[in-house]
Write a structure and sequence with these properties.
Helix content is 40%, strand content 15%. By secondary structure, it is α/β, with parallel strands linked by helices. It has a 7-stranded mixed sheet with strand order 1-7-6-5-4-2-3, with helices on both faces. A 3-stranded antiparallel sheet has the order 8-9-10, covered by helices on one side. The chain is globular and about 60 Å long. The structure holds pyridoxal-5'-phosphate. Pyridoxal-5'-phosphate (PLP) binds next to helix 3.
């Protein structure tokens, strides 16, 4: 049975696994000084068409926390959406690793910040008693399955930079956003003013790991030490980096992201004609959020389906992954139709 609780329930995609196995040949220098890590970093620079600085860490919480910490002093603050993963699901990691930089919450439709919402937070206070805003963080695709257009990112970044703030992007599902928008990765990041991207690998189909991509190399000066201190410097780094090669080769990552997005569309379309069920947000990436009758929720769980209801604003979240099959989507829909009836 395939599950919809999270896109990280899925296994490793064959291309990433193949690249991982290929890296398991003989000895290689440790701590990132290996050929695999160098090749993937170069490949990521090619992908973004810029000379960025690339680091590999084990998970998204570490990527976000350490990236944000590298942009802040402890007396600074980070502006984020009120449902941002950094606020709701990282157990205070960003505050911990930055020695106390405070998250300042902003509202926005569909899980998205706007320049107005960010400006409201910036302008709220500027006295010595308040943590000075230093970073804006955007999630692409958002926690509720919507996406920012390049122009929306550029508008927020422009405002942020104008006020001396840096821009961080939580790209746990960056692949899904690129797949939907069909634009160059550089257009959604550095060309739109993003300073640091946490490029999600796990949810794309890698075994583990995210890449932290600094478009402004000055910001990554001490990042390697920060990773080491936080326990995020893999000694056998090649096994964190090599699987990216299989994923990036021939745009495998985009093919899988398009597939996951298409499965979300299939699910969303199927849900719209089930009585008592409504979609909460536009379905723009690989996640579907729906309000279900409570009995239908219980019934789905009793039939073995797993999904979360604590993410976003309280609906049921169904995530599609690189390997979600149309048959699994249809089985879920069939069960829900029966239960709703
Ligand atoms: C928006 C977002 N950011 C980051 C992460 C990464 O979190 P983790 O530390 O579980 O890899 C997730 C995972 O669910 C996420 O949904």
């Amino acid at each position: 049975m395939q599950h919809f609780a999270s896109d990280n329930y899925a296994g490793i995609c064959p291309e990433a696994l193949q690249a991982l196995l290929a890296a398991n040949d003989g000895h290689a220098p440790a701590y990132g000084d290996d050929e695999w890590t160098r090749r993937v970093s170069d490949r990521i620079r090619e992908l973004f068409a810029t000379d960025c600085d690339v680091y590999f860490v084990f998970n998204g919480t570490a990527a976000n926390s350490l990236a944000l910490a590298s942009l802040c002093q402890s007396y600074h603050s980070v502006i984020c959406h009120e449902v941002a993963h950094v606020e709701t699901d990282e157990c205070g990691g960003p505050e911990f690793f930055s020695n106390g930089s405070k998250l300042l919450l902003a509202k926005g439709e569909g899980g998205k910040l706007t320049p107005e919402a960010v400006l409201e937070v910036i302008a709220r206070r500027n006295d010595i008693h308040y943590p000075k805003p230093r970073v804006v963080t955007l999630t692409q695709a958002t926690e509720v399955g919507t996406i920012y257009q390049a122009s929306e990112i550029a508008a927020i970044s422009g405002l942020a930079h104008q006020h001396g703030l840096r821009v961080h992007m939580d790209g746990a599902r960056f692949a899904n956003a690129v797949a939907t928008l069909g634009v160059a990765p550089g257009d959604l990041t550095w060309r739109a003013g993003v300073d640091v991207l946490c490029f999600g690998g796990t949810k794309m189909g890698l075994p583990v790991g995210e890449a932290v991509v600094f478009f402004d190399r000055k910001l990554s000066e001490d990042f390697a030490w920060r990773c080491k201190q936080a326990g995020q410097l893999a000694s056998k780094m090649r096994f964190l980096s090599a699987s990216w090669l299989g994923m990036l080769e021939g745009d495998v990552w985009l093919r899988y992201a398009r597939h996951a997005n298409a499965m979300a569309q299939r699910l969303a379309h199927g849900l719209t004609d089930i009585p008592g069920v409504s979609l909460q947000f536009p379905v723009e990436a690989n996640g579907v959020f729906a309000i279900l009758p409570p009995l239908a929720q219980e019934g789905l769980r009793a039939r073995g389906w797993r999904f979360y209801t604590f993410i976003g604003t309280g609906g049921a979240r169904f995530m599609c992954a690189w390997d979600t099959t149309p048959a699994s989507v249809d089985r879920l829909l069939m069960d829900l139709r029966e239960l709703a009836a």
